[in-house]
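Appendix B. One record, verbatim.
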Amino acid sequence: MATLPNPLPKLAADPSGRSLGLRLPAGALVDTTHEGPWHEPLLWCADGRALPGGWAALEPARRAGLLPVVLETGDGHGGPDHWELMPGAVSYPGDHDAEEVLAEYWEEHAAQGETWPGPAGAAPGAQDPDTVAAGTVDALLGDGGPFKHPRLALVPARRSADIPTAIGWTGPANHEGDTARLSAVLRSWEDRFGIRVAALGFDHLLLSVATPPATPAAAEAVAAEHFAFCPDNIHQGTDPTLRAYAEHQVLNQPVWHFWWD
């Protein structure tokens, strides 16, 4: 995968990140992959539990080429050093066309005779996606949030959509072996809906959404993309039809969640 120069090795001798203009809490660099140590760190991960305000505190890292993400380490699979990361098995997201990827997934998983409806239109909106992401993460990290043990991380990536590919994340392995194809779709959702990769677990992906669909028809069009992207959301979710899923999980929803069995 084509990447920018990785600033993480500087943190080995400078754990606070001062040389990068940062003031990091205690944490560690992760280079563990399914096939042994990678040739450079894949990410930095904080030691302590992520708290509201932590995401915003990492915002200066963007200037150094590092993007924030929350990692769920309390779901029984441990931290990223136990996630079977495979950075050598991924391609580059820019080499894939999002619509072609979704159409292929749809043809593979939809019922016979159901035609791919095509991509949904962009949702209008003026909110800054990074500001929305910071607020969304703070809300998710508050009392009653979905995480058992969230930890803040920094990943060297060009854009938020590329974070799963940059670390060689294998959460969707039973659906797609090349995570770059999913990042291509995430890039398209960045452009159309202002998504940011807010959190990753062993096999979970959570997105903040700055401009979600605001009409039932638009939500149903996006629901079709969600089904292609992650069929388990429908097949093993609480909403067994695209219309129900669109109403409850997409329409005006500031968070999109995906899980692969």
